[in-house]
Amino acid sequence: MKNLKIKTHRKNLFAAVALFSFAAFFTPESAFAQQSGISRTNLQRHNIEILGYETIQARIDFEPDSAFGMHSHPGEEIIYVLEGIFEYQIEGEKPVVLKAGEVLFIPAGKNHSAKNIGKVKASELATYIVRKDKPLLVMKK
């Protein structure tokens, strides 16, 4: 009986660890946590009238000289720079430098990166219009 409890406990523990690992891998917060000097504050998330899509807004803060590597989203991203100076690189295009008050549109599935090129904190408001059945963020391998 004791042996059965240990096996069940191990099985449940393994399932919990696997579920946690799966969830952490597919959440944008885990990807941001891996990037030193970058923090994300989720502001709102809502279903929209287009079946299977939602909109998500987040504030993303970058310490000086911090960067977030190439990644994509399963939908469009609209960026509004709140403060500081960013350099965005969209795969296959020339880098774009934006300062507070400027905007950028990133097409669905397009790999891109962002870097704070200023000497102070830089922040952006990211608005995503994305598929609900896909991970919000996919790092390029």
UniProtKB/TrEMBL annotation:
What CDD domains does UniProt report for this protein, alphabetically? cupin_BLL4011-like
Q: Does the keyword Repressor apply?
A: no
Alphabetical UniProt keywords: Signal
* InterPro entries (alphabetical): Cupin_2, RmlC-like_jellyroll, RmlC_Cupin_sf
Phylogenetic lineage: Bacteria, Pseudomonadati, Bacteroidota, Sphingobacteriia, Sphingobacteriales
- What this protein is called in its record is Cupin
Identify the stretch annotated as signal peptide in this record: 1-33
| Protein species of origin | Pedobacter steynii
What positions does the domain Cupin type-2 occupy?
60-123
